[in-house]
Structures
1.
Amino acid sequence: MSPLPPDHVQDLQEGILRYLADHPDAADTCEGIEAWWLGGGRGDACGDELRLALEALIRRRVLMREILPGGAVIYRGAQAQDVARIEPERQP
């Protein structure tokens, strides 16, 4: 398996940040983020690149991961009021 292209992961992060800037109270599963926030599909799968983008935003404290009582995992802006000011992380 070849490494994932960092530019695409970065593009996904930027798309998530744009969505949160417009919808600061949004919260969704990985599949919902793929389908609704990024407009990329049916929302029935969460790819490796999107998972990497979500994890990078969690490490940067832009997103929070929440596990619901039934076990579903949702993601939401960690500091919704500040998301519009956060710059995407650039890969060297």
2.
Amino acid sequence: MAAANKIDQGYKALGQYDYFKAKKCFKKTKLAVTPFSVDHQAGPRKYIFDHLFIPNLDSLRRWRSLIKEWTGTTVYKLKGYI
């Protein structure tokens, strides 16, 4: 009966920024999951001067999210979650 309640493996749909922390947390708890990223942020590479060298506001928003994730990952490491 106890074996019926045990979870051996599973699937977890993850956002791009949650992927690293969630994967590490599951690994630490020895829960086998197959992560699947659902919100890819990158698009096709455009070799146009404006696209490559002139910053836009969307890029600043993405940097803000990235810095927030770096901070969260550092806190998770300090608290021992990963």
3.
Amino acid sequence: MIVVVMLCAAMIKPAWNLFQTYRIAGQTKQRLYAAQAVNWTLERRVKRARSEATLRREARRQGMILPGEQAWVVNGIK
């Protein structure tokens, strides 16, 4: 009887460690899925930002012109 009690007592810590590991793994998976969702969103934004239309629009917004074009400055417009 004492041997059985000692064996059960010896199994408490490994069982507790197994439970903790399982719980932490679940939390880690949730954090991984959240990070993957953010990463997917950022990858889409980068892909859109690298498109030809976006690059042209941003260049125009910054005042750049295409080769062969003539730049005009209009004063007095509010």
